[in-house]
Each structure stands twice: as C-alpha cells, then as structure tokens.
Amino acid sequence: MLNLETYIASKEDIETIEEAIKYVWNPKLDFIFNDKSEINDTAVISYDSRYVYIWMRDNGFIKIPHKIKILEKFHSYWRAGLEPGEIEKYLPAAIREKTRFEIPILSGGLVTPFIELQKLMKKPNNPYTTKESYFAAIVHEFGHIYYDQHKLTWYSDKKKNLSLMKLAFKLYGSKKIQPQKYPILYTNQPFNFTEVFAFCAEYTAADFFWKGHKKVIDEYSKLWIKKLIKEEQELDLDKKNSSIEISAVERAHSSAIVLGKILFEEDHKVWPGKLLRRKYIT
Fold this sequence. Notes:
Strand order of the largest sheet: 3-2-1-5-4
Order of helices and strands: HEEEEHEHHHEHHHHE
Structural class: alpha+beta
Strand content: 5-15%
Number of helices: 9
Radius of gyration: 21 Å
C-alpha cells in the first residue's frame, strides 16, 4: 500500500496525464469536442504529498509546492472542478482569479495511487483499475467541462439574467415594448445531461481507443441496470423519483448509463449535437 503522506509523483504519473490530455485532441474525437476554444484554457490539476501539478495547453506544465494534507479519497478519482478546495490558494493568480468559464478546472489523483485505491474498493467489475481506464476518466471529465461551457444547465450568464429581470420590472410598470424587441427565452437542460454527455464522451473514446475498458463498462453497467430494474419495479412514482430521473442529482450516473448507452447505439456521432441543443420558448 502506498504511503500517500510521502508519495511523490513518478515520471510515469506525469507522462500518463499528458498522454490522457492528448486523447481529447485526437482527431477521432473532434465530433465530440468540436469547438476546442471551449476547452483550450482548461487547467488540468493533480497532486501528491508535496506538489500541485498543473497542465495548461498554452501555458505548459507548472509544479508548485504545497503544505496540505490531502485526504486519500481525493487520490482515487477525477472530477470537473477543483478538489480539495484548499489547493486554490496555491494556484497562480491567472487561474485563481478567473471564473470557471474563463479557466475551467478538472482535478484528480495521479495514476499510481488512483489505480491502487480503485482496486482496494473491491467493486464487482470496477471499470477504473487500469491505465486505459485512467485515460478514460480524464476524457470523461473533459466531457463535463465541454458540456458545461455551453451553459445549458442553469442561468449562469449574470448579464443576461439581469436584463431579463429589468425587462420584467419595466413590464410590471406598464412599460410597453415592440414585439420584435422581446428577448428569445430558453429553458435549461436537466442537470443530469452533463453526466450523460460525459458518459458518452468516455464510452465513445473507449470504443475508439480502449476496447478492454469498454468491455468492463458494459459488464459493470449490466449489473447496475439489473439493480435499477428491480428498484424501479418496486417504486411508487407518485411519491419518489424514478431510478433514472434526469432532474434528480442523485440519479445522475444512473441516468447516464441508461440514456447514454441508448444515445450512443442510436448513432455514434449524432449524440453530441442532440445533448448540446438548447431548447427555446418560441
């Protein structure tokens, strides 16, 4: 068992992240990450007992010493966003002072502790115990970043939000405006669509590059869906959410393995457009 309180990144740890990032820019995935400007400024962040490691496409590789005791769990997965939050104070101002849309961040553990900790979980058919699954995990999180950059999930544009509020205020004051000057309104996509997009990005990449990982995802997902079917059969949907309710955050991964697989099989290259399509009120 690694001693994470003293572990320092190996050359393989560093190079594996750099290799994972290259997959996102592989031409085979261009139909997923179609507009690279949405993810070009992403900061990819990892860490060990002494250093924070940062990769940015235009600014290269940065290594920064830290004095945080990073909990074991943070070495075992990747996520869109920064964890642990205490790392933020060590980040360069050029990253720290920007919004999540100006400088998106994804963060997670190095490949050596990641794989070891995943194996210790002893989950049946755990898909994340190999180097190729580590690549897949990082592609998955880039999927979240790309989807979220389209600002589909919530009203995240403060300028537009304020303009809508001010317009409504004027209208309540009997202010009349010409019909053609009314803004185009849109509805937010369900939160879980970001998870569906990320699943499809990972699953598609696995279909291209990591057939072994795809096979394990299939076996893992079949076990999961068997449980979902049993649960759904026993649910009273008048009182509780469906096992795949797309608006329930706690159901995000369940939604993704069911809806994502169907979208992928329907047409391997059409699902990005379907999930990124904004719904307007017209």
